[in-house]
Amino acid sequence: MRLDVSLFSGVESDMDETTPAAGAFRGDRTEFDACGVGFVADVSGRRSHEIVLKGIEALEHLEHRGACGCDPESGDGAGVLVQIPHEYLVERCAELGIRLPDPGRYGAGMVFLPLDSHYRSHAVRLLERALESTGMEVLGWREVPTDERHCGRISLRTKPAIAQVFAKPRARMDEDDLERRLFLARKIAEHEAVKSGGAVSRDFYVCSLSCRTMVYKGMLMAPQVLGFFPDLEDPRFASALALVHSRFSTNTLPTWRLAQPFRYLAHNGEINTVRGNTNWMAAREKIFESELFGDDIKRLIPIIEPGQSDSAVFDNGLELLFQTGRSLPHAMMMMIPEAWEKHESMPQEKKDFYRYHGCLLEPWDGPASIAFTDGRRIGAVLDRNGLRPSRYSVTRDGLVIMASETGVLDVPAKDVVLKDRLQPGRMFYVDLVEQRIIEDEEVKHTIATRAPYGVWLREQLVELDALPPARETARTIEGEELLHWQKLFGYTLEDLRVLLTPMALNGQEPVGSMGTDTPLACLSNRPQLLFNYFKQLFAQVTNPAIDPIREELVMSLKLTLGRQENLFDESPAHCRQLAIEQPILTNEELARVREIDANGIRATTIPILFEDDGTGTALERALDRVCEAARQAVADGYEIIILSDRGADERHVPIPSLLATGAVHHDLIRQGSRTRVGLVVESAEPREVMHFCLLIGYGASAVNPYLALDTLVSLAGHGDLHGHSPEEAIANYV
Q1: Active site amino acids
Q2: Is residue 657 domain-shared with residue 728, that is, in the same domain?
Q3: How many CB atoms are located within 10 Å of the residue 351 CB?
Q4: Is the pLDDT of residue 312 over 50?
Q5: 692 CB contacts (<8 Å, ≥6 apart)?
Q6: Is 300 helix (H, G, I), strand (E, B) or coil?
Q7: What pLDDT score does 129 carry?
Q8: Residue 80 and residue 67: Cα distance in Å, rounded?
Q9: Are both 243 and 286 inside the same structural domain?
Q10: 443 and 575 in one domain?
Q11: Do 442 and 489 fall into the same domain?
Q12: Which of 290, 314, 291, 292 is nearest to 303 (CA)?
């Protein structure tokens, strides 16, 4: 049965790209959530309508964690993820002339569509073509009944048409293969929708497309979900799990597509590193290879869809790792690792797992409580700081309840056999197939011992501290020459007295309380460093202050530097990198990096200087030369590139280090070779924390601020650091 676009009632959509609910006011990159999340499951895997109702009840009791706008009946979003209610859908589809195969032999999708009939028809054809191109046969469409009395005025104004699509594979395949086919079809449809633009790009959205799970969600308040979707009230609608979410959007206005749960998770918190995670995922896409997808892997790209919240982006990343053949707990351990480096009692195999996977993927950091499921197993994980609440209970009859707070279901105390809170970095995991709760230690031990990660690390990972002393270290700049270099790179007395001196004395960034009355760099009449044109972003409302002294256990600056391998695979070569204790390198450490020749890891230096010929194009031509030199270095097999402005003189002008770093980083991304090399910046420009953050944010893995270090040596030599030696001053500063 094809979808009859006339089935959908309602007015034509008057929402365009400028409508707040479509794009929100603050931009896609400031999307963060602070919400209520939870799940209810039957450990035995027994499906029932009771589980669905209990999940909805838990959702309604989390209403206060969600939010509404000026219209008190229009929520930020709420929804529920359940197992596909096969028996219920068989009956409903039969009424439409659709014959569904056995469970696990077909896929079902929940789809938002444009209200306008023309664009709706286009979106329907788009998804059908995507399914057919991946070996699927479309069985038909079903309009999802909705009761608009349970929807606020503002929400109703932007409500899409909602339908379900059903498809089966033309060739026989197991559930895992079918899930991958459906995942591929959805990605193809999403990419085509973006290309279509207009209402299709804006209003077409696949909430779920799976042979195991289905998502009912919308721009609703928690108590409205059950009434808005009559399907959920039918006694034949059964599931063994119900994952729920009530959204509180802290930075943007809500939209229907940003309601949760997403396809695999529901999230309370913020992913503060989401922009960097997104950029690095884009850099890795060019080297993706997989036997599971073959040549179709190129059709998955881009993995991260534009215009999403941090939670939706996290779901995209988790989904990809899951589709590589890893389990959801494995993927979660990669994305949200425990605080492992300074954990004295943690088993070595688990530390080896985390260190190895740190070479593959950077953490997705931020306060987070995430519930996740693939439809067969369900669990939850907390960030390593434990900054979001999560509590769970288990009853005598095998009912499992997890939520942002206790008491979401009224359970007599005599029936509770286990009650606890989720610990920082820990995982709570329920296997409905094995019909048991699996402890955090067992889950992680099983995953950590699936490969000899420790052996691979000992054979392949190169420690900077283990490298021999450098044969030649750059000389220290002193005296009048030092003053000349300080003037060249814009040093001021304020830099020396207010910035560098306190850092050298106390190891702390100087703090002022009265703000700054200096003009913005873009309005200033004086020359400015490129760094000064940037302002720090921050997460609003929900983030507590971080104390790196008292919370040292969960803080780390360690990183690896070098070539990255295909994310779809795991091998010894994946950890053939250089490990450094922190991203700020002393002159001697940089010299060792420059001379490295271990396990095939080699480094080369590219000058970031240019001759100003007065034409006004010299800088642009110089950047082109630097990018070309970086491409050639990658082609020559170098795995570390050092961008250096040493050698500046009256003829050779230094390129701003941030400009050179960003240019090389993005040029290599465009060339598809960014992950084949690590970038180190050797520059006289950076001296304060913000400078280093910007360089790392724009692609550098490590920075050697040689002029700042030589300045500290000079200050110590002149007795300006209260008796601190040059070595002590540099150690404090770094």
Answers
A1: 35
A2: yes
A3: 18
A4: yes
A5: 583, 584, 686, 703, 705
A6: helix
A7: 98
A8: 17
A9: yes
A10: no
A11: no
A12: 314
What domain range is 162 assigned to?
36-450
Give Cα separations from 705 to 37, 493, 601, 650 (angstroms): 45, 18, 23, 21
The whole-angstrom separation of Cα 167 and Cα 162 is 17
Residue 587 resides in a domain: yes
Q: Are 304 and 321 in contact (CB under 8 A)?
A: no
Q: Which amino acid is at 216?
A: Y
Give the pairing type, strands 578-580 and 462-463.
parallel
pLDDT tens track for 35-91: 889 999 999 999 999 999 999 999 999 988 877 666 778 888 999 999 999 999 999
DSSP secondary structure of 41-103? EETT---BHHHHHHHHHHHHTTGGGS-B-SSTT-BS-EEEEEE--HHHHHHHHHHTT----ST
Reference 184, options 64, 35, 297; nearest CA is 297
- What pLDDT is attached to residue 63? 86
Domain assignment of residue 515, yes or no = no
| 577, 619 Cβ separation under 8 angstroms | no
| pLDDT classification of 30: cutoffs 50, 70, 90 | very low
* Domain presence at residue 609: yes
Per-residue confidence (pLDDT) for residue 579, from 0 to 100:
97
Between β-strands 678-682 and 702-704, what pairing exists: parallel, antiparallel or unpaired? parallel
Considering the domain architecture, whether residues 498 and 396 belong to the same structural domain is answered as no
SS3 sequence, 648-665?
CCCCCEECCHHHHHHHHH
Distances (CA, A) of 641 to 632, 656, 676, 700, 701: 11, 17, 10, 10, 10
Q: Of 491, 488, 377, 379, whose CA–CA distance to 435 is shortest?
A: 377
| CA 527 – CA 530 distance, rounded (Å) | 9
Helix axes 706-717, 587-594, angle to 10 degrees: 140
Question: What's the sign of the alpha-carbon dihedral 143, 144, 147, 150?
Answer: negative
* CATH number assigned to the domain comprising residue 369: 3.60.20.10
- Strands 427-431 and 377-382 turn out to be antiparallel
Note whether residue 528 is domain-resident.
Answer: no
CA distances from 201 to 10, 128, 165, 198, 207 (A): 20, 16, 19, 6, 14
Average pLDDT of the chain is 91
Structural contact between residues 585 and 703, judged by C-beta atoms closer than 8 angstroms: yes
Nearest-CA neighbor of 114 among 11, 192, 261?
Answer: 11
Tokens of 139: 């069985």
CB atoms near residue 489 (< 10 Å): 19
Partner residues linked to 373 by β-bridges:
378
Instruction: Give the Cα separation of 175 and 214 in Å (integer).
Output: 15
Place of tokens 């970086």: 630
Secondary structure class of 418 (helix, strand, coil): strand
Phi-psi region of 77 (alpha: psi -120 to 50; beta: other; left: phi over 0): left
Structural domains of the chain, count: 2
Question: What are the respective helix, strand and coil percentages of the chain, to the nearest 5?
Answer: 40, 20, 40
Residues pairing with 610 in the sheet: 653
Distance between CA atoms of 106 and 119, rounded to whole angstroms?
A: 27
Contact 633, 677 (CB under 8 A): yes
Same domain, 436 and 585: no
Task: For residues 638-656, give the mean pLDDT.
Answer: 95
Any residues with CB less than 8 A from the CB of 318 and at least 6 apart, and which? 264, 265, 328, 331, 332, 335, 372
485 and 445 in a common domain:
no
